[in-house]
Amino acid sequence: MVLDQGIEVEAVNCLTPFCLCSGKKGCGHEAKRATDRFGVKLKIFNISTEYIEVIKGPRYGYGKNLNPCIDCRILMHRKAKEYMRNTGASFVITGEVLGQRPMSQHRAALKTIERESGLEGLILRPLSARLLPPSIPEKEGWIDRERLLEISGRSRRPQMALAARYRIVDYPCPAGGCLLTDPGFARRMKDLMAHCEITLNDIQLLKSGRHFRLRNQAKLVVGRNKEENEALLRLAKRDDICLRPVDVKGPIGVGRGYFDQTTITLASQIIARYSDGLPDDKVSPVKGPVPKGVRIAIEDLASRKKDLIFVKGISNSQLEAFRI
Ligand code: SF4
User: Fold this and answer.
1) Domain containing residue 268
2) 136 Cα to the center of ligand 1, angstroms
3) Rounded Cα distance, 60 and 96, in Å
4) Same domain, yes or no, for 219 and 153?
5) What's the 73 CA to ligand 1 centre distance in angstroms?
6) Residue 144 belongs to a domain
7) Would you say residue 187 lies in a domain?
8) Which of 13, 87, 173, 233 has the most crowded Cβ, counting Cβ within 10 A?
9) CA-CA distance, 304 to 324, in Å (whole number)?
10) What is the mean pLDDT of each run of 10 residues along the chain (324 residues)?
């Protein structure tokens, strides 16, 4: 819409570890595809490190889960302002819609974001512009307010109709927020924040597998399928331990933190719980009837030293006490 008014536009994309579009090609790929289509230059800011600080104590609080939407948008708008100043651009355009998101897109929140990012009067929101006070670009006549829209509310239908008008068909799902709005992910993230200094690797690890807090300083992540097992192995760090069943099919587990013998046994019991079937006689370390159990290999990734342990799978009721 803004290009249609003959205005020169460049795009800014902020990457965080919580984007939902971080498939194999990554979020930057989606933004690049969109900007290429319109012949618009793209600047990508990776704000992951700053974002972690925001999540720890957002000035404007959290939404329903761990989503600090107002602080998040302030940070992104500050990046846009930085780029605006560096490139000599005159104002910032966003796709925000009045009333679309309960926390960050009501009138007061839009005002707060504008003020806190130092962009007062300089944010143009073409989709809702005619419902909002005129911005500087409208007052100055750089852009024709009459050709802007008055969309509001939670329905995405008008935006989808607009997209169809511009022949945009392959856009991401227009509803929902980032991973921080997901209750399960938020729970795991809160657990992480309560127990250690967070790294980007820790956050990536939250995206795969089942998570268990075994003790204050030790957690176990168990893959749910082949892709997750591979992801866990890629993310495992030197200080981690890796667990896997030896004689039967089963998941990979990555243990992070301090693991004494009791914790290693517990982690092995969890891996055994998710492993297939029973081992053959030959894997049982005891004579006589085969006890229900699985042989688990535990590898210290720093020393590459391996140990074997024979354990029974933990019961479902015991397991739940450790699930994050
Ligand atoms: S849903 Fe996530 S990315 Fe979107 S504004 Fe909220 S915190 Fe930021």
Assistant:
1) 208-320
2) 26
3) 18
4) no
5) 7
6) yes
7) no
8) 13
9) 28
10) 97 92 65 91 95 96 96 97 97 96 92 98 98 98 98 94 91 82 96 94 96 97 97 97 94 97 97 78 50 86 94 93 97
Of 56, 62, 72, the residue with max ligand 1 atoms within 8 A of its CB, to mutate for a pocket test, comes to: 72
> What is the identity of the amino acid at 324?
I
Q: Which two tokens stand for residue 278?
A: 């029973």
Helix (H) or strand (E) holding 261: helix 261-273
Q: Which of 179, 197, 219 is the last residue of a domain?
A: 179
Nearest atom (ligand 1) to Cα of 67: 7
Contact 319, 255 (CB under 8 A): no
Q: Which atom of ligand 1 is nearest to the CA of 103?
A: 6
pLDDT at site 155: 93
Number of domains comprising the chain = 2
Which residues fall within 8 angstroms of residue 51, CB to CB, at 6 or more apart?
Answer: 16, 17, 18, 72, 75
